[in-house]
Specification:
Shape: globular
Number of strands: 8
Helix content: 10-25%
Structural class: alpha+beta
Largest sheet: 8 strands, mixed
C-alpha cells in the first residue's frame, strides 16, 4: 500500500531520506540539493512523500515562481522535482504524487503550475505546451508545459517565467 503524505518539515531524518530519494532517482546530488535550497529559501509550497511499508520511496516538491508580464508579476508554481526510487518507478507513484500535489495547490488557491518535463508524460495530468505558448523560457518549447488550476488563469498572461534563485536560471 502506497501512502502519500506531507513532508514533516521538522524531521531531520525525513529530510535525509528525501535527499536520498532525489539523489537515487536522478543519479546525482543536483535535484536533491535543489530541494534543500528551495526549502531553505522558503520557496517550497507543497512537499509530499510516498511511503511503502514505512520506507520512503518518492518525493515531489512544488515551489513558488513567477511570470513577468508587461503589467504585473503573476504568481505561479513550479513542479520540480518529482522523484521515485529506481526500484519503485513505473508503479504509478510519481502520478499519485503529482495528482495529490495539484489537489493541495487547488485547495490553497494557486492558479498556475509550470513544469519542465517530458512531453509524453505530463499531459496526462493536464499540462499543456499550448497553455505555455506565451511564456518565455530558456528551455525547449516542447518541454515547457503549464496547467491552469483555475480556469482562465493564463488568459492574457504573456512574459518570461522567473524561477526562484536556487534553480540558478537567470532572466530570459
Amino acid at each position: 500500500m502506497i501512502r502519500i503524505r506531507p513532508e514533516d518539515p521538522g524531521n531531520a531524518d525525513e529530510r535525509t531520506a528525501i535527499h536520498a530519494v532525489n539523489e537515487a532517482a536522478f543519479g546525482g546530488p543536483d535535484e536533491a540539493d535543489l530541494v534543500d535550497a528551495l526549502r531553505a529559501g522558503e520557496y517550497a509550497l507543497v512537499s509530499l512523500v510516498a511511503v511503502i511499508g514505512g520506507k520512503m520511496t518518492g518525493h515531489i516538491l512544488f515551489s513558488r515562481m513567477w511570470i513577468d508580464t508587461s503589467s504585473a508579476r503573476v504568481s505561479a508554481v513550479a513542479l520540480a522535482p518529482v522523484a521515485v526510487l529506481p526500484a519503485d518507478q513505473r508503479k504509478g507513484i510519481g502520478g499519485m504524487l503529482i495528482r495529490r500535489g495539484l489537489e493541495l495547490l487547488r485547495d490553497r488557491g494557486e492558479r498556475i503550475v509550470i513544469v519542465l518535463g517530458h512531453p509524453d508524460y505530463y499531459p496526462r495530468f493536464g499540462f499543456s505546451t499550448v497553455k505555455a505558448r506565451l511564456l518565455a523560457s530558456p528551455f525547449p518549447a516542447e518541454a515547457v508545459m503549464a496547467m491552469e488550476l483555475s480556469p482562465g488563469a493564463l488568459d492574457g498572461v504573456k512574459g518570461p517565467v522567473i524561477y526562484p534563485p536556487p534553480f540558478g536560471i537567470g532572466p530570459v
